[in-house]
Amino acid sequence: MKKLLIVTTGGTIDKNYFDDMSDYQIGEPMIGQILQQMQVGFEFEVRQLMRKDSLHITDADRYTIRAEIAASDLSHILITHGTDSMVKTALLLADIPDKTMVLTGALNPARFRDSDAVFNIGCAVGALQALQPGVWIAMNGCIWDPRKVRKNREQNRFESTLTTG
Amino acid sequence: MKKLLIVTTGGTIDKNYFDDMSDYQIGEPMIGQILQQMQVGFEFEVRQLMRKDSLHITDADRYTIRAEIAASDLSHILITHGTDSMVKTALLLADIPDKTMVLTGALNPARFRDSDAVFNIGCAVGALQALQPGVWIAMNGCIWDPRKVRKNREQNRFESTLTTG
Amino acid sequence: MKKLLIVTTGGTIDKNYFDDMSDYQIGEPMIGQILQQMQVGFEFEVRQLMRKDSLHITDADRYTIRAEIAASDLSHILITHGTDSMVKTALLLADIPDKTMVLTGALNPARFRDSDAVFNIGCAVGALQALQPGVWIAMNGCIWDPRKVRKNREQNRFESTLTTG
Amino acid sequence: MKKLLIVTTGGTIDKNYFDDMSDYQIGEPMIGQILQQMQVGFEFEVRQLMRKDSLHITDADRYTIRAEIAASDLSHILITHGTDSMVKTALLLADIPDKTMVLTGALNPARFRDSDAVFNIGCAVGALQALQPGVWIAMNGCIWDPRKVRKNREQNRFESTLTTG
To answer: Which of B20, B24, B113 shows the shortest C-beta gap to D113?
Structure first.
């Protein structure tokens, strides 16, 4: 794979344990050390743009993310993002030409024993090497078109919006 | 993703420590429970063909693996396999038409704290949804053409055979 | 060891991350499955009294805990408890005669990768088999007299109150 | 607790993943980093005497272990040791005066996800602070008199030798 740009924005994937008296909920991005630990055979660069729960990501933030990606020389982009507004950010990236972009995150913090974080990062990394240019979401082991997926909050999972009646 | 056929053959990924033998032996395949734990959004079926360290996989075994895949109705296949002869098995699957097949495994058992198993399974699952029909290897975070990759034993990693002199 | 009574009251040790609430909440007590997994050679019984962060444990709650222990036939008691008011609860148990009681908890949830939960439970279990009757706290690998220990919130650790000036 | 001397001798607790082509089975002792990670409130010193599976520990080795402990100024000693001949080594330490010594180990390597290593180390550390001088074994959550315990190989656990007929 060509050099991968990784843009981190926060989200559950990077959450620490926090309690009522903690100021800092979202910690250092975990993806860099995960990829190093997995001894990946490609180069990558991590750009930490923000540390936000995605319920608090504003449209201004989304434009910041978009601008960072559009300005990069790199053609393959992995974005870690909170799951609650991941689709919204993905849709804003859809018209950036000539880049293959995959957003992923986690429903449980990477620091948790049975987190989906490492699996989801793996899915995104594998998909990035085979997908056509465009923007995609990797959650629950599936590669989604952002126009056709939503997060089902009650069941805490991503699902297709194309459910037949 | 369409329904995924998972063929397990053994390998380090499924090894467990057995204190009474002071040794590691191949246990129950881990991939089914890993995918369930990750709450993947696709159906899958696990066929356990053998439990062999891939140094002990024979050509007869490889033909068994090939026959199982060729006979299946399913078009997307994930094969877990020991890393030592993974390339050899992959090459034997290359001429099966109309199937997208990815082989993966792990350099450390899935039961180990910092194993690459879950990451590699994620890579394979993500890649399967975007690759063209054919056979591929997912190791060290890269999707490899089996004709162009080898396992470097000294460094315990997969690398391209296309290294310029 | 004679049969161990385990009283659970909540605390960080049992917290789980709930994505839909973007928060940690106290889940099912972990100690029973931890001891089973460790294949301990003694009998034990788990009594779940409450699921409270110990900042929210009231004096009425502490009397409930005390009454449960005082009424038991069992002589060896392990109490899992939040760390913030663990000392306060311990002091209320000090005058229960003929019982060896150890309180422990964790600074990170048992469900976290690098939690102190299992280690602390081990400390408490080991100490219970050697201590004289009375009440003790097991945190940070030390067995403390509750009259001589406090939780240092800034450093998130337990320390002796007997620091010379 | 007074400063703890930790003597490491190898055993399953420190085993790496190894295969037919590995030379080194027993890795760097894990106990030092475990205790640091748990932020224990006492000082300790690790002396690595050997890296042996305890089936290969000789009487000469046992005398080496004994001599190291007897010569130390420290009064509280934790010995990590393979489980297969742990009782034998313990019996040789029984007559060292004025020291509280606990042997522990693990039935699964500390590098494994669900290892008993951390729990057993916790048990030993907790017990050391309450036991009378003498030698003890901490396994399966129990503190054993070495004259009254054996390892049951079929069931892979420690049990009392005082079973009534």
So the answer is: B113
CB contact under 8 A, A19 and C53: yes
pLDDT digits (tens, 9 = 90+) for C128-156: 999 999 999 999 999 999 999 999 999 99
Q: Which chain B positions have a beta carbon within 8 Å of D12's beta carbon?
A: 17, 19, 22
Q: Do C129 and D122 touch (CB under 8 A)?
A: no
**Whole-number Å distance between alpha carbons of B118 and A117:** 10
**pTM for this one?**
0.94
Best mutation target, C13, C16, C22, C115, to test chain A (most A CBs within 10 A): C22
Collapsed DSSP state (helix, strand, coil) of residue A9 = strand
3-state helix, strand, coil in chain B (%, to 5): 30, 30, 35
Query: What's the Rg (C-alpha) of chain D?
Result: 15
Q: How far is D60 from chain C (nearest CA, A)?
A: 30
**pLDDT (tens digit per residue) in A49-98:** 999 999 999 999 999 999 999 999 999 999 999 999 999 999 999 999 99
C-alpha–C-alpha distance, residues D26 and D15, integer Å: 4
Residue B151 forms contact with D (CB below 8 Å): no
Chain C positions touching D122 (Cβ under 8 A) are 118-123, 125-126, 141
Main-chain phi, psi angles of B27, to 5 degrees: -100, -165
Among residues A96, A111, A86, which one has the least CA distance to residue A26?
Answer: A111
Take residue D93 and report the two structure tokens written for it.
Answer: 């330490």
- C-alpha to C-alpha distances, B155 to B149, B150, B158, C139, D111, nearest whole angstrom: 14, 12, 9, 41, 20
